């Protein structure tokens, strides 16, 4: 053994502290429904985390305690009353997948080893789930933001005949379209890819916050008249603000007619294809040229894990492969493997995210995952009804999916934006619940997103009670 190995000197002590930490982690998850939602990191611990670079290491016991100390201070998304933004709640089973993946320490850039086959299986399952054709390809990535960059690049490169890979985009007058409710990651992708975020047109929405297709048609025509080249349109399947779903079938038609790449941002909404009640409204999703979605949101896989699917594997490879003869590699030995992930995305070294997705789907099966999604939609509908029926609240958007946007009304307080913002902050700081806020038609909304398999109806009742209590307290 080398003098400087990083393996434990005392495997027994390592094993004992590892088992202890595993128990502490399981305790934490078993009690996920109890206690505060969000607990800010105490000053003392912030101080500890500003320590100087250590020259010497710790013993196993001390390190295990340091790790365990962090457990209470997450975002709060493991709690049933975490309603902010769009966060998945995670699941205990993934702890085992993460242990396995850490023990393997696999690099999924390529080569021929077990982990590669697991990722291929996850992509194949995703393809089946989303109804993409057999010649589709895909990659497990950090999340929808990265998936969007990859999809946009394939769209851009295929439009410019892959010349831009070497020569840059120059002054290519390419423009794309999203709804005003679309996520900012698409504009970021345009920025990163040298197209410029200004080349992404934001199309107004209908009353239900889905993209107005007449406005889209007009924007395309106006752009063409001005010498721009429309090449890309995004359908949002589940918008961040209100959970709106664009008319994907109509967008697929329009994309075909106008010769545009049709991308779908289905970060959380696409996985609702597993829900019997939502499925139908995602019709057209399987016609997309590319799809970005997350496993870590509504499928409850632990952070982070998302997916990009590209309808044409050929185009996907042409956009990312550095190997001229990308379909022929070595066919024996560790360097074999017909398709290396490095030829499908920007990263060479890649971790084994796919394992926790694979294990999660194996553990629960997709019917149960779909049932959790169904239940969240029923809960959102319930909350929306309660809000509608109470004179104390105003519903600010129709409940399309799993998101309820509303505000507390007060007879004594005229600045409702400030009042509602303060209510949300108080809910978070008091550890009661963690909704977030957004603006809809100029009004600040309390935004309750339910992508949480631990949420019960009682959590929603309690939320409304507490909002009323705090609203009453603040309005005086
Ligand atoms: C969360 C979200 C994104 C970004 O996904 P990440 O996984 O956070 O990168 C994009 N679009 C929508 C609609 C989202 O909800």
UniProtKB/TrEMBL annotation:
**Source superkingdom:** Bacteria
Cofactor(s) of this protein: pyridoxal 5'-phosphate
Positions carrying N6-(pyridoxal phosphate)lysine: 297
Keywords tagged on the record: Decarboxylase, Lyase, Pyridoxal phosphate
Keyword Protein transport, does the record have it? no
GO biological processes:
amino acid metabolic process; carboxylic acid metabolic process
What InterPro entries would the database entry show?
Answer: Aromatic_deC, PyrdxlP-dep_de-COase, PyrdxlP-dep_Trfase, PyrdxlP-dep_Trfase_major, Pyridoxal-P_BS
Example GO molecular function term? carboxy-lyase activity
Pfam families (alphabetical): Pyridoxal_deC
Q: PANTHER family given for it?
A: GROUP II PYRIDOXAL-5-PHOSPHATE DECARBOXYLASE (PTHR11999), MIP05841P (PTHR11999:SF70)
Query: What family is this?
Result: Belongs to the group II decarboxylase family.
Q: What is this protein called?
A: Glutamate or tyrosine decarboxylase
């Amino acid at each position: 053994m080398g003098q400087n190995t990083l393996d434990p000197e005392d495997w027994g002590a390592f094993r004992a502290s590892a088992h202890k930490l595993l128990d502490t982690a399981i305790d934490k998850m078993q009690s996920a429904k109890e206690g505060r939602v969000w607990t800010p990191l105490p000053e003392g611990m912030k101080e500890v985390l500003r320590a100087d670079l250590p020259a010497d290491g710790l013993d196993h016991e001390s390190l295990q305690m340091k790790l365990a100390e962090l457990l209470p201070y997450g975002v709060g998304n493991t709690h049933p009353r975490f309603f902010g933004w769009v966060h998945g709640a995670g699941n205990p089973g993934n702890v085992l997948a993460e242990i396995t993946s850490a023990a393997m320490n696999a690099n999924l850039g390529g080569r021929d080893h077990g982990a590669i086959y697991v990722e291929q299986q996850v992509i194949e399952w995703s393809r089946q789930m989303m109804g993409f054709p057999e010649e589709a390809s895909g990659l497990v990535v950090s999340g929808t933001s990265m998936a969007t960059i990859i999809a946009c690049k394939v769209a851009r490169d295929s439009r410019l005949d892959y010349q831009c890979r070497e020569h840059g985009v120059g002054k290519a007058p390419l423009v794309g379209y999203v709804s005003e409710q679309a996520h900012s990651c698409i504009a970021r992708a345009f920025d990163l890819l040298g197209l410029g975020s200004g080349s992404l047109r934001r199309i107004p929405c209908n009353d239900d916050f889905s993209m107005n297709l007449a406005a889209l048609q007009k924007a395309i025509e106006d752009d063409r008249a001005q010498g721009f080249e429309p090449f890309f349109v995004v359908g949002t399947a589940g918008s961040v603000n209100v959970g709106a779903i664009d008319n994907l079938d109509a967008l697929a038609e329009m994309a075909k007619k106008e010769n545009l790449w049709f991308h779908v941002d289905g970060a959380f909404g696409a996985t609702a294809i597993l829900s019997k009640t939502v499925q139908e409204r995602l019709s057209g999703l399987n016609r997309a040229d590319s799809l970005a979605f997350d496993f870590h949101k509504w499928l409850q896989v632990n952070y982070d894990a998302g997916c990009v699917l590209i309808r044409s594997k050929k185009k996907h490879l042409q956009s990312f492969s550095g190997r001229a003869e990308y379909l022929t590699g070595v066919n024996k030995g560790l360097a074999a493997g017909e398709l290396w992930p490095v030829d499908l995305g920007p990263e060479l070294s890649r971790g084994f995210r796919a394992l926790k997705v694979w294990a999660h789907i194996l553990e629960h099966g997709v019917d149960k995952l779909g049932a959790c999604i169904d239940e969240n939609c029923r809960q959102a509908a319930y909350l929306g009804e309660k809000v509608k029926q109470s004179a104390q609240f105003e519903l600010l958007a129709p409940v399309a999916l799993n998101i309820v946007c509303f505000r507390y009304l007060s007879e004594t307080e005229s600045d409702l934006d400030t009042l509602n913002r303060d209510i949300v902050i108080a809910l978070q700081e008091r550890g009661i619940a963690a909704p977030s806020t957004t603006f809809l038609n100029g009004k600040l909304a309390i935004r309750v997103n339910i992508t949480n398999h631990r949420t019960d109806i009682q959590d929603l009742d309690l939320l409304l009670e507490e909002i009323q209590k705090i609203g009453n307290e603040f309005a005086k």
